[in-house]
Amino acid sequence: MEPLHIWHTPWTELDVVLRLVLAAFVGGIIGMDRERAHKWAGIRTLLLVCLGSALFTIVSIFGFGDPADPARLAAGIVVGIGFLGAGVILHSEKGVVGLTTAAAVWAIAAVGVAIGCGLYLIALATALLMLVALRLHTKHPPD
């Protein structure tokens, strides 16, 4: 049986499913790190952000036919994730907390977009750099 090609690309439905699985896995790994640090946005949140971003990217590339502008939906992801990230930032007597978690939500959305585009090495390198950055300690209280 001939593989189903999505629009005019060599992608098959299996390729798309594998991208979604990779996005869920990478988002889950970053989320596990945040959950171990007892942050509000943990495994489920970051897994879903990465997965959703990948799916929106895939749909924007292949769901609307030719000619379509996939950058429009990617721009919408950035705005939407900004609102989600703003929801984890809190003002308290100690100051502002949640900025690192909000940045992690924002960055994992970008990783999801990269995976959705098929930029696996870039996505995985970014996720690794995120893990390193999230492990860095500062003199300020962590958020």
Walkthrough of the structure:
This protein has 143 residues and is mainly α. The chain has one domain. The protein is 67% helix and 4% strand. The protein is built from 5 helices and 2 strands. The protein has helices at residues 13-36, 43-62, 70-86, 99-117, 120-135; strands spanning 90-92, 95-97. The protein has a two-stranded antiparallel sheet. Strand 1 (90-92) and strand 2 form a beta hairpin. Helix 2 runs parallel beside helix 4 (99-117), helix 3 (70-86) packs antiparallel against helix 4 (99-117) and helix 4 (99-117) runs antiparallel to helix 5 (120-135). The longest helix is centred in the first third of the chain and has 24 residues, at 13-36. The termini are far apart. The relative contact order is 0.16.
Shape: globular
The spatial strand order of the largest sheet comes to 1-2
Q: How many helices does DSSP assign?
A: 5
Q: Give the mean pLDDT.
A: 85
Count of beta strands: 2
- Helix % is 55-70%
Strand content: under 5%
List the uncertain runs: none
Gyration radius (Cα, Å) is 17 Å
The overall number of domains is: 1
Largest sheet: 2 strands, antiparallel
List SSEs in N-to-C order.
Answer: HHHEEHH
Structural class: mainly alpha
Distance between the termini: 53 Å
